[in-house]
Each structure stands twice: as C-alpha cells, then as structure tokens.
Design brief:
It is a single chain. The chain is mostly helical.
C-alpha cells in the first residue's frame, strides 16, 4: 500500500491560526485515516483468528496479541478524538472558577441553618 501523503494536513496545521482551525485539520485527518485503520484492524483480527488458533490460546500468545493489536489500532482514533475535544473545551469552554461572578450567581442559595437543639425558650 502506498504511504498516504500527509503534506496537505501538515501544511494546513502549520497555517492554522486558532485551536478551532487546528482541530478542523485534525478531524479531517482522522476522518481520512479511519477507513484504513479499520481495514488494518479487520485484517489483524482475521490473522489472530486464522484457522481457529485463537481458541484456547493464552493471553500472551501471538493470536491473542494480534487480536489485541486489532482493537488498539482503532483506539488510536478514539484517543486522538478525545484529545482534540479536550483541547477545544479547554480553549473555548473552560470550567468556571469560584471567583467568577457569573458562577457565583448560578449557585443555589445556601441551605438554611438548622434550628438549635433543645427546648424552645419560654416567654
């Protein structure tokens, strides 16, 4: 298989001015890579199951290792997607800090203080 040319993605990433633009490039790359990674995962799974060699095999055996690598090859996409989303949220939707006035206004009122224990004072 020919190696994909990442030059357009690297160029676009270099030219990105904002985290949103960098994210868009990353998402395009992940979308483009997904079919190939899925195909590789399918192959590795088939290789691990070839002639039933995975049945009864130990976890550290070659068939089980091939099957594990099949799932890990797709984990690359999930991890990259999670990292991209986390970076976007950190930039554009940061968690409010306690000293943020808007955060203070959005907090519920403090609960009432409990009544004192013991008998009520007489008049």
């Amino acid at each position: 298989m020919p190696t994909p040319d990442l030059t357009p993605y690297l160029t676009a990433l270099t030219e990105a001015q904002t985290p949103a633009e960098a994210s868009a490039v990353t998402r395009h790359l992940l979308d483009a890579a997904e079919p190939l990674l899925r195909a590789v995962s399918d192959y590795l799974l088939a290789a691990g199951q070839w002639r039933g060699q995975n049945r009864g095999a130990k976890l550290d055996s070659p068939p089980k290792m091939l099957m594990t690598s099949a799932s890990h090859s797709l984990s690359v996409l999930a991890l990259a997607d999670a990292a991209d989303l986390k970076a976007l949220r950190a930039e554009y939707d940061p968690a409010p800090t306690p000293d943020t006035p808007q955060a203070e206004r959005s907090l519920p009122p403090a609960p009432p203080k409990p009544p004192p224990a013991g008998p009520a004072p007489s008049r």
